[in-house]
Amino acid sequence: MIRHDIQRPETIQVDHDDRGVVRLTLNRPEIRNAFDDVLIQDLTETLERIAGEEKARALVLTGAGAAFSAGAEIGWMKRAGGQRDHENFQDAMKLAGLMKRLDTMPMPTIARVNGAALGGGVGLTATCDMAIAASDAVFAFSEVKLGIIPGAISPYALRAIGERAARRYFLTGERFGAEEALRIGLIHAVAEDEAALDAAVDDLLGHITGSGPRAVRASKDLISHVAGRKIDDLLVRDTAQRIAHQRATGEAKEGLSAFLEKRRPTW
């Protein structure tokens, strides 16, 4: 069963299902799901609310219509650039805050890239933990074509594709397809059509919802604490403490017992 919740009908549709999967659909197909200050605020607030939902086991982000997200709405960007320095900076911080909020969601996040992902749309793709794209999806760090830069999305994009690929695509703004996005690490898989896209996303969700809910969240938190750190005694101790804590939980005891007894765990 799916429950529908509309967060301002013109911006975002929120759906919950019985598995604990939350699906967010950017709902402005008439402008290819482009960002402006309203969408940024609505999406940030929606993510903040979902982050506090203990029963939310996974989040899927997609776009209504033919595009995933065409990035920043040009009129909004022009208006923002015309503001005084402080207001311009505060406006940019809201976009940066949206990316950080998505990056730090406690549950796994999946980008279901159903069409073009340009500018900030690439940022959303890179910021999600996993990304599956339709074979006809098109990507571009298109900011330089407009005389701007991919500032707010750069930490997440660089983490996904690496500096070498960024030196090409940040600087040229050229478009590239799903296969190239797969090659450089922006996405994890390419789906041939809409049905295959849904099937690929559902396959990931099946693995996530078939695992221990707290263990999945703890594993995501583990990644953020370990990635990029020097392997020293402090890190070794921290990782040992984490596994010791987790295997003492009721969830771990149930998972290990279920495995030994050849049955499904209660979750």
Portion in beta strands: 15-25%
Radius of gyration: 19 Å
Task: Give the neighbour order of strands across the main sheet.
Answer: 1-2-3-4-6-8-11
Identify the CATH homologous superfamily of the largest domain.
Answer: 2-enoyl-CoA Hydratase, Chain A, domain 1
**Mean pLDDT, all residues:** 94
Please specify the SSE layout and strand pairing.
Blueprint: E1 2-7, E2 12-17, E3 21-26, H1 37-51, E4 58-63, E5 67-69, H2 74-81, H3 85-103, E6 109-113, E7 116-118, H4 120-127, E8 130-134, E9 138-140, H5 154-172, E10 176-177, H6 178-184, E11 189-191, H7 194-209, H8 213-226, H9 233-247, H10 250-260
Parallel strand pairs: 3-4, 4-6, 5-7, 6-8, 7-9, 8-11
Antiparallel strand pairs: 1-2, 2-3, 9-10
Helix pairs in contact: 1-3, 4-5, 8-9
Keywords:
267 residues; alpha/beta; 2-enoyl-CoA Hydratase, Chain A, domain 1; 2 domains; seven-stranded mixed β-sheet; four-stranded mixed β-sheet; 10 helices; 11 strands; 49% helix; 18% strand; globular
Q: What does the model show?
A:
β3, α1 (37-51) and β4 (58-63) form a beta-alpha-beta unit. By secondary structure, this protein is an alpha/beta fold. The radius of gyration is 19 Å and the shape is globular. The model has no long low-confidence stretch (mean pLDDT 94). The protein has two domains: 2-209, 2-enoyl-CoA Hydratase, Chain A, domain 1 (Alpha-Beta Complex); 213-260. The protein is built from ten helices and eleven strands.
